[in-house]
Amino acid sequence: MRGIGRWRSAVGAGMTPIVFALAFWLLTWWLNTRIAGSAWRGSRAGRLAVPVIFGITVLVAWECLVLGLDVSPVILPAPTAIAARFAVSTHVLWGDFVQTALKGAVSGYLIGCSAAFIVSLAVDRIPFLQRGLLPIGNFVAALPIVGIAPILVNWFGFDWQSKAAVVVAMVFFPMLVNTVQGLADTTSMQRDLMRTYSSTYWQTLAKLRLPAAMPFIFNGLKISTTLALIGAIVAEYFGSPTRGMGFRISTEVGVLGLDMVWAEITVAAIAGSAFYGAVALMERGATFWHPSQRS
Question: What pTM was computed for the model?
Answer without folding.
Answer: 0.81
